[in-house]
Amino acid sequence: MKPRATVTTDPDRASDGADAPAGGGSEGRDGSGTRTDRSRAIGTRGPRTAKKAKKGSAKSGPTGTGPQLGGITWRQRLYRDRTLVLMTVPAIALLLIFNYIPLLGNIVAFQDYDVYDLGITGSPFVGFDNFTRIFEDYRFWEVLINTLVIFVTQLVLFFPIPIAIALLLNTIMSARVRAWVQAVVYLPHFFSWVLVVTVFQQMFGGAGLVAQWARDHGHEGFDLMTNPGFFKFLVSAQAVWKDAGWGVIVFLAALAAVNTDLYEAAAVDGAGRWRRMWHVTLPALRPVIALLLVLRVGSALNLDFEQILLQRDQVGSGASEILDTYIWWTGIKTGDFGYAAAAGVFKGLFSVAMVLGANKVAHMLGEQGVYSKK
Fold this sequence. Notes:
Layout: H1 11-14, H2 37-59, E1 68-69, E2 72-73, H3 74-80, H4 82-100, H5 119-122, H6 129-136, H7 138-158, H8 160-171, H9 175-186, H10 193-204, H11 209-216, H12 231-256, H13 260-268, H14 273-298, H15 305-315, H16 317-320, H17 323-332, H18 337-364
Helix pairs in contact: 6-18, 7-12, 8-12, 9-12, 12-14, 13-14, 14-18, 17-18
C-alpha cells in the first residue's frame, strides 16, 4: 500500500529553501525573507473569509431560523427560559384584566352614561361636557386642594420615618434583636384600616385611654378623632403606624448592598458613626430615596380611600373629603357615572404629570428616577 504524503510544519524546514518541494518556490520564502505571492494570497484570504463567516453568523441563526441575540436565536432563548415565561403568564394576565382592559371604560367620561337602559354602546356622546362640569364645580377644586394638603402632610411626616427606622435597624449588631424589631414594626401592615381606626379610637377618642388618663389627673378631656383641624395629622399618624415598617424593607435591601470596605476605609480615616452614616450610608440610599419619592409624588391624589371613608362622618366632609371619596359620593352614589369617570381621567392625567415633573427634578439633581435620561 502506497504511503500517504505528509506536510511538515517544522518552522526550520519551512524556512529552508532546500527542503521546499520542486517547483514550489512560491510556497516558501525568497532570499530576502519576504513571503511569496502564494503565501500572501493565503494570508489575506484567511481573515477575509473568517470575517465574512462571522458577519453571516450575526445575521441569522445556525439553521437560518431568525436573528441571533447573544449567539442564539430568540426562539432558542424562549425555549431556554420557558419556565420563567410560564411563571410570568399569571401576573401578565392579571395586569391585563384589572389594569389595561378597564381603560376602555374611560369612554364613559365622554358620554351621558346610562348604566341601566342604554349602556356603553347606547349612551349618547356629549364630548367634553363632563370635564366642563368638573372645572366649573368649585367644590371639586376645594376637594383637590384638601387632597394635596393631606398628601404634603403625609409626605413630610411619613416619608422620612422608614429611612430612619432602616438606619436604626442597620446599626443593631444582634441578629435576634434586629429580627424582633422588624417583626414588631412590620406587623401593623397586615391590619385592616377598620382595625387601625378602631385602635386609634380606643386610644385618642373622647372615651379613649389618653382622654381618661387626662381626666383622672385633673385635666380637661379631648377627642382627637373628631377634631377637623387635627385630621390631616391624625391620618398621617395612622399611616406611619400601619405602613412605615413595611416601607423599611426596600431601604434595608439597599443598605445590604453597600460595600463594607467603604465603612472600614472611613473608619480608618477617622470618621465616626455619624460621619459614616452621612458620607457612606445616605449616598448609597439616595438613588432609592429618589425613586420612591418620584413614585410617591405620582400618587399624590391616590390616598387611602378606605381610611378616609371610615372617618369621614366623624370630622365632616369639609376636612376629610379627598378626591376619591368626592368621586364616590357625587358620582357613583348619585348615579352620575359620566361625571365620576371624567374626574377619574383627570386624576390619572394629573398623576402622570406629577410623575414626569418629579422625574425631571430627579434628573436635575443627578439621579435616575423612574427612567434614565437619554
